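Re-run with default settings, no changes from the original entry. Doing this only to confirm the output is reproducible before filing.
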Amino acid sequence: MATLFTSELEEGMVTLTDTYSNSGKLIVPKDTVLTKSIIQMLSGNDVVFVDISDIVEPIVESQENDLSSALDTEKIKEKPQYKKFVHRYEKSISEMGDHLNDIVYKNAPIDVDMMLQNTMTTMKALNDSPLSIFTMLSTMKNYDDSTFNHSLNVALICNIFADWLNLSEDDKKLITACGLFHDVGKMLIPDAILKKPGRLTKDEFDIIKTHPVKGYQLLQKNKLDPHIQYAALMHHEKCDGSGYPIGLKGNQIDWCAQIVTIADIYEAMTAKRVYRGPISPFKVINMFEEDGLKKYNPKYLLTFLEHVVNSYMNCKVRLSNGEEGDIVFINKVRLSKPMVKTKNNFIDLSKQTDINIDSIL
C-alpha cells in the first residue's frame, strides 16, 4: 500500500480503500481507477491523501530529483560508521532470508530467538553510530528482496518504538518479533504476482491482499505467540474500519498490531517504490497529522511522530524552495513544520506553509 498526497496522484492509479469527504460522505470507492476528473474531485473535496494500490505503473522521476537523492545518500555514506552498519545489516538480511525460506519451503520450525538475536546485533551496530535509525535506514532501500529488507527495517523501528512507549524488556522483544514476522505471508504469494513490474489486475491484487491471512496461518501452525500471529493478520487494519482483511475497528485490533502498523506504514512510505522516489519523512509526518488520528491509535501515533521528529533535530535539510538549513526548533503543535535556520534566515515552516522539507541531508 502507498498513501499519497492528492497532489501526487496520477491517472491510472487504483484506490486501495474507500475515500470519504471530511463530512463522512463516500466520494470514491475502493478499486477505482483514477482519472483526471476524479483527482480534481478529490482535490475539490479537500481530501488530503488517498490509499493507493502498491503496484502501479512506474512514474519516471526527473533527473534533477534523482541526482539530489544520490547526493544526499552519498553524504550519509561518507560517515565512518556507515560501513560497519551496512556490513551487519547485509548479514542480517542474508540470514533472515535463509531462515524464512527454510520455514516456507522446507517446513523448518521458526526460531524466534535466533531471529531476535540477529536483529539485536544489527541494532547494536546502529547504537554505536551517532546517526539516527531513520537516517541510516534511509540508505537501505536497494536490496533485491524487499520483503526481507522491509521486515528487518520495521523490526528495528519497532525496537526503538518500544523504548519510546516505555514498554518492558519482554514486550520490547515481543514487538520486535512482531515487526520481523508481520509480512511473512508475502513469501506465500507467487513471485510472478509479487514482483510483477507492471500494474496488477484486480484479481492479482486480491491475491496480494491474502498475505495477512496466509502469514497468520503459517505463524499459527508454528504456535508462535498470539500477538505475533495477530500482527501478521492485522497490520493492514485501520482503527476507522477502512483496512483489510477483516475491517476491524479500534480495540478490535491487537495492541501489538497497532504498533507494527504505524512502523510498517512509515517505513513503506519513506522507502523508494517503482512508481516514486522515497517520500520525505516530514511529508509522511504531515500525512499522519492530517488524517492519521482516525486511522491509527492516537496514543501510539503521537508518541511515534514526536520522537521521529526529535531524531531529526539539528539535522541539515533541503527545503522545497531550494535552500538548505538546519532544524533548530520543533513545533509540537505541527510536528511536520519545524523551524529551519538557513544561511541568512530563520524559516518557521508552520507560518510559511508554501515551503516544505524535501529531503534530509
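Residues 82-105 form the longest helix (24 residues). The two ends are 26 Å apart (CA to CA).
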